[in-house]
């Protein structure tokens, strides 16, 4: 599975290359509740086809009605960019299916430049992080390769947003739990790799779209070159696989490093890493263990929900209270008996 942004931009490029008329739409700002975050994109063909999303569906329907021949409009004409707003009033928010108080401001780019789209897609396919800036008066686009993501900027004159490779997930251990976590990660637009040197485990792996590796996990972490868009989760329950991989991951810029295990096993792991691998409480502070949020999960599917919820929270910059941790939740549960 590839990045949604890349699919939208590749579709826009292909339609423009065919000399079709298209509209590229980007969420520039939001107020209140919003169904899609800033930077979300969609491309609309004048025959009514579209890729991507900027709302729950009703805004897309309105854009189709305004700009596509399929809905009786004149079509998508050549024009300089336009900024439009949806959900200014409560009635309009209700009409367009926006959450209570939600407002969207969209940048519409009519028939964007093919050469700029081609260059952007090439850079994204090469795994580069790119800052795309649009001059809202002329429609001129500039592309800059960057090293770290920057937040979207929109001041009415320029829209600048960061586009880049998918978020990546490395799972250590090809267990049943890993299959559920991988499936959820794929649905959330992660590129997923599962590493397990035990051939008997990988032999039964059944999740399509996931890369597999038989390297030792610490070598797999090193080969992956983790960056700030990478998460690494140890699910094998085997210290021989997990420990060195976790140490390698904790020395990387990965935004999330986690490990499955009971509270006792987690404490034993910390003591083991400190005693034998020169780790410290400070160097282990980034380790999420036991992994996940406490939802009293028991089955692999429920545990995967817990794990994925914590990963997404960290990815989205949510500061989670300690009361949501698995360790705290289990301790509280025990104290009730």
Automatic annotation (TrEMBL):
<protein>
    <submittedName>
        <fullName>XdhC family protein</fullName>
    </submittedName>
</protein>
<dbReference type="InterPro" id="IPR003777">
    <property type="entry name" value="XdhC_CoxI"/>
</dbReference>
<dbReference type="InterPro" id="IPR027051">
    <property type="entry name" value="XdhC_Rossmann_dom"/>
</dbReference>
<dbReference type="Pfam" id="PF02625">
    <property type="entry name" value="XdhC_CoxI"/>
</dbReference>
<dbReference type="Pfam" id="PF13478">
    <property type="entry name" value="XdhC_C"/>
</dbReference>
<feature type="domain" description="XdhC Rossmann">
    <location>
        <begin position="169"/>
        <end position="311"/>
    </location>
</feature>
<feature type="domain" description="XdhC- CoxI">
    <location>
        <begin position="15"/>
        <end position="87"/>
    </location>
</feature>
<dbReference type="InterPro" id="IPR052698">
    <property type="entry name" value="MoCofactor_Util/Proc"/>
</dbReference>
């Amino acid at each position: 599975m590839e990045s949604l942004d890349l699919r939208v931009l590749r579709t826009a490029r292909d339609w423009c290359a065919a000399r079709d008329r298209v509209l590229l739409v980007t969420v520039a700002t939001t107020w209140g509740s919003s169904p899609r975050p800033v930077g979300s994109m969609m491309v609309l063909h004048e025959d009514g086809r579209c890729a991507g999303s900027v709302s729950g569906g009703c805004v897309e329907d309105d854009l189709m009605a305004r700009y596509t021949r399929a809905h009786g409009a004149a079509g998508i004409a050549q024009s300089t960019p336009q900024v439009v707003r949806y959900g200014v009033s409560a009635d309009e928010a209700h009409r367009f299916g926006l959450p209570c108080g939600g407002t969207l401001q969209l940048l519409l780019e009519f028939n964007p430049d093919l050469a700029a789209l081609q260059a952007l897609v090439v850079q994204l396919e090469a795994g580069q992080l790119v800052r795309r800036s649009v001059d809202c008066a002329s429609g001129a686009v500039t592309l800059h390769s960057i090293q770290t993501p920057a937040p979207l900027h929109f001041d009415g004159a320029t829209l600048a947003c960061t586009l880049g490779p998918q978020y990546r997930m490395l799972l250590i251990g090809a267990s049943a739990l890993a299959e559920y976590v991988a499936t959820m990660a794929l649905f959330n637009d992660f590129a997923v790799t599962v590493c397990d040197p035990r051939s008997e485990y990988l032999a039964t792996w059944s999740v399509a779209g996931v890369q597999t590796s038989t390297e030792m996990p610490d070598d797999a972490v090193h080969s992956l070159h983790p960056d700030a868009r990478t998460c690494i989760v140890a699910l094998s329950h085997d210290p021989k696989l997990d420990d060195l991989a976790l140490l390698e991951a904790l020395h990387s810029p990965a935004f999330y490093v986690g490990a499955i295990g009971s509270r006792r096993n987690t404490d034993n792991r910390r003591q083991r890493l400190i005693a034998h691998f020169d780790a410290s409480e400070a160097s282990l502070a980034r380790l999420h263990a036991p992994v996940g949020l406490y939802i009293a999960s028991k089955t692999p599917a429920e545990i995967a929900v817990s794990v994925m919820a914590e990963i997404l929270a960290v990815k989205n910059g949510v500061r989670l209270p300690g009361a949501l941790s698995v360790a705290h939740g289990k301790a509280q549960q025990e104290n009730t008996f």
